[in-house]
Amino acid sequence: MFNLLIVDDEIYAVEGLRLGVKWSSLGFSGVYEAYNIQSAKEIIREAQIHVVICDIEMPEGDGFELIAWIRENYPDIATLFLTCHADFKYAQRAIQLGTQDYLLKPVDYDTLQHVVGRIIVSIKEEREWKQTQQIAQAFWESKKNVLVERFWQDLLSARLSTTAERLEQTLHEFKVSFDPGQMNVLPILISIEQWTQVFTERDEELMEYAMRKVAEEMILDGFPGCTVQDRNGVNLVIVYCEMLQPVAIEVLLGRCENFITYCERHFYCRASCYIGEKLPIEQTKQGYEHLLKMEYDNIAKSHSVHLFISANEKFARLPSVNLSDWPALIEQDEGVILRQQIHKTLSRLKDEGGNAEALLIYYHNVLQCIYLVLQKQGKSIQEVFGEAGVLEPTSFPKTINQMEEWAIKVTGMAIHAIKMNEDSIVRQVKEYIEAHLDERIERMELSELVHLNPAYLSRLFKKETQESLTEYILSRKMQLSKKLLRGSNKPISEIALIAGFSNLSYFSKAFKKLFQVSPMAYRKQSNSDKPNGIIQNSGGKYES
């Protein structure tokens, strides 16, 4: 038998639902009533509730808050929203909370009985399924997945020996179904370039976990392999390939394109996939590092699929001019001499009857020169040139004069870049955040500010501060909110908007999670500490 809880602040609505449906025919032995969230929580704690029918707008908290609490504390309870709100945002939020259904008032009782009946059937099926599962087998499968991921994490971080004998032994110990004598690996890097919605660090971790699971289904889909996240937070698909069989690159390309589209629609992010080359397992780390370099160097084409191109293929043809002393000139900040060298080498190219093909070779040679300097300094092409557009295909110089202007510009940017360190980048980002706390701050605008790839900026910020960019912004906005609650008489809803929260409920939950007290309670406490209960009104810019 089952127990039902109806939650609505309107007593007549509750009575109508309780009497309008023959709940006993669906297997309910108890029908409980609650008129606010606190009362509903008390009933759930005391009684074994199986299904909750809940309104959205109620005093002392809304239905979303209740369902979120149920999901966190009683995940087996099935939930159903019954509301007069037809707004898509409400339905979308309900789906995100895992609610079984969403019905609009006034509801037809036969329809409600049918929907709840379907929920009861699913509960029964879930019970039967759990009963047929072997606990030991489920435990083993979960441990097996962890072991496989740990193996690839250790291999990618060079913690494992790659000698043939030791590798075979380690594969056996970690229960990895891979035969190094018959198989190669093909890594695919999944680069999350931008979240299109604001998430907490925990939310992003959950999204990335879900993305890896979807990648298993969409990209592998019959291919042996696995998905892993390395110790630096990089997501990878590792395809196991037969040594003597060609790789179905066209198939992988199509699947990666579909996966990118799926991520944009369902995971609120823009992503790219970087497909590597088939390599022996002992060379997996090198192949992985090549893909990281591709991600860093990609400044022109985002939200797309990229195939690995070896350095020999990319820079096989070199111009006749000698640029060997350029790296030293860039490192020594010799901009004047560099401009002279650029003019001299291009004049020689012109005198020798250079054509468009020679100009292209010169272009790549300059890029290779800059890359060598930046690599030595621990920087990447993407980090330095970011959104500047100087390496976009449309900006490629078509004449000798255009090439001279371009070369002077990019070498100048390289000289400037080696003067900057990571501390100054993080400091610049923090200063921008402080100056725009009362605005919506996106990761993309921060990456454009410092001319970095968004994914690279996030990793750099966390490395330097031990705090994610998202969590830092949220923390600073909360500190601003705290100051405004203490020093102004602005409504809490207005303070939430100033701090960048369009949803008052989400703001209240975030504030309470950080400070262990609700915004209203904090304001009352702060005001009681002031002489005569005076509230000072604040205006102008807000200080941190």
The main sheet comes to: 5 strands, parallel
SS content category: alpha/beta
- Give the integer mean of the pLDDT values: 81
Coarse morphology: globular
- The second-level CATH architecture of the largest domain is 2-Layer Sandwich
Question: Roughly how much helix do the residues carry, as a percent range?
Answer: 55-70%
Structure description:
It contains 23 helices and 10 strands. By secondary structure, the chain is α/β, with parallel strands linked by helices. The chain folds into 4 domains: 2-132, Rossmann fold (3-Layer(aba) Sandwich); 152-309, Alpha-Beta Plaits (2-Layer Sandwich); 326-419, no CATH class; 423-533, Orthogonal Bundle (Arc Repressor Mutant, subunit A). The strands form 2 sheets. Strands 2-1-3-4-5 form a 5-stranded parallel beta sheet, sandwiched between helices. It has a 5-stranded mixed beta sheet with strand order 7-8-6-9-10, with helices on both faces. Strand 7 (225-229) and strand 8 form a beta hairpin. Helix 8 packs antiparallel against helix 9 (249-266), helix 13 runs antiparallel to helix 16 and helix 14 packs parallel to helix 16 (400-419). It is globular. Residues 311-319 and 533-544 have low confidence and may be disordered.
